[in-house]
Amino acid sequence: HSNRAMWFQDFFPPNVCPIDVKANTFYGIMFDAGSTGTRIHIYTFVQKSPENLPELEGEIFESVKPGLSAYADQPEKGAETVKKLLDMAIEAVPPHLWKKTPVVLKATAGLRLLSEEKAQALLLEVKEVFEESPFLVPEDSVGIMDGSHEGILAWITVNFLTGQLSGQNRQTVGTLDLGGASTQITFLPRFEETLKETPGDFLTSFEMFNSTYKLYTHSYLGFGLKAARLAILGALNMEVVDGQMFRSSCLPKQLEAEWHFGGVKYRYGGNKEGETGFKPCYLEVLKFVKGKLHQPDEIRGSSFYAFSYYYDRAADTNLIDYEQGGVLEVRDFEIKAKEVCDNMERYKSASPFLCMDLTYITALLKEGFGFRDNTLLQLTKKVNNIETSWTLGATFYLLQSLGMTY
Ligand SMILES: O=c1[nH]cnc2c1ncn2[C@@H]1O[C@H](COP(=O)(O)OP(=O)(O)O)[C@@H](O)[C@H]1O
Ligand SMILES: [Ca+2]
């Protein structure tokens, strides 16, 4: 498989190339069963020579909404959504490689919040879908992922894609993930002080690509954007009485609506008579955020990669370009939150939660984690056309554990 054997491939469309120059291509399929949606990531790797590590060649990505947890009482229907996505992999992976291509599904906060019984019923149905597929189904192929792994694997993905896990002069970056039901912060501490001041269960050592890293990581369950909405409304873990109304100064005054989350129906609305706007909203949000999160001193001055709902809300309000992403300061979220909350009628075309979401993001960053107003956030959805998701890091681990690579 020297370069000499491949010189002619440029002259042929890939499907009629006379010899299989891609003989060393292999695949990995990773499902992300998130609280708001289920996604399939089909990664392609190429082993260019036996002495080098395989290279990541590309990704096929597709997603469906809602997530598995919305099917808590219909596990078969939930598994059906996984099957639909898996059919894409049948198309994408050449038949002779099906048997060698591993498929795994990891669920995050949505399933963590369900009862053990309901979560297991869903996972069992998914496992059956996998068993009936032509792919390789490893042990533990279906399960709920530990929150600390979620942060670490996303950190691996971002730092791998930006080239920080190989070569000289490595400058790793921290990552911030804001999901629907939980949120993660992960970084590589540089100061001895940080290690001393950090609770033990926030530190995890692991090995990747022949280096050992000791990372600061934590997943805050219930602090995802959608779970936070309920907490701010005061509706979290409430026995919702029929017709009960939850009001907030973060919502448009005249609003009255319904919202389904985690299989429960909530009625919510604005402060018809009382105050609305950024100031009262921020105070309301602070009641939920303040004093709940660990604040490592070290992060105040460093910059972070941020994705998921940080990205979505920044793009929704034109703080960044939806395709390109961009760099923001923490204060940009606050400026935008003020603009939206103090002109709620003007923004009524967008989600009624826009003011609450931006205010929550501001409070989470500043009062939760303790970032400065001028802390830089690099908002990214993709690096080199690969999604910034924990799924790539998880696939590296999977391939490593199967002895296929790394
Ligand atoms: O592969 C991905 N690429 C880009 N964004 C993603 C991907 N997977 C999830 N997201 C983002 O994650 C957020 C939803 O979080 P999710 O449903 O994963 O909740 P959870 O992490 O609390 O379980 C949304 O902002 C969604 O756009
Ligand atoms: Ca997620």
TrEMBL record:
ATP binds at G180, A181, S182, T183, Q184. The active site is at E150. Pfam families: GDA1_CD39. The keyword Magnesium applies. It is an enzyme of class 3 (hydrolase). GO terms for molecular function: ATP binding; nucleoside diphosphate phosphatase activity. Keywords: ATP-binding, Calcium, Disulfide bond, Endoplasmic reticulum, Glycoprotein, Hydrolase, Magnesium, Nucleotide-binding, Secreted, Signal. PROSITE patterns: GDA1_CD39_NTPASE. It catalyses: CDP + H2O = CMP + phosphate + H(+); IDP + H2O = IMP + phosphate + H(+); a ribonucleoside 5'-diphosphate + H2O = a ribonucleoside 5'-phosphate + phosphate + H(+); GDP + H2O = GMP + phosphate + H(+). It comes from the Eukaryota. It is found in: Endoplasmic reticulum; Secreted. Its EC number is 3.6.1.6. One of its GO terms (cellular component) is extracellular region. The keyword Nucleus does not apply. Pathway: Protein modification; protein glycosylation. Its cofactor is Mg(2+); Ca(2+). Monomer; active form. Homodimer; disulfide-linked. Homodimers are enzymatically inactive. PANTHER family: ADENOSINE/GUANOSINE DIPHOSPHATASE, NUCLEOSIDE DIPHOSPHATE PHOSPHATASE ENTPD5. Belongs to the GDA1/CD39 NTPase family. Hydrolyzes nucleoside diphosphates with a preference for GDP, IDP and UDP compared to ADP and CDP. In the lumen of the endoplasmic reticulum, hydrolyzes UDP that acts as an end-product feedback inhibitor of the UDP-Glc:glycoprotein glucosyltransferases. UMP can be transported back by an UDP-sugar antiporter to the cytosol where it is consumed to regenerate UDP-glucose. Therefore, it positively regulates protein reglucosylation by clearing UDP from the ER lumen and by promoting the regeneration of UDP-glucose. This is nucleoside diphosphate phosphatase. It comes from Manacus vitellinus.
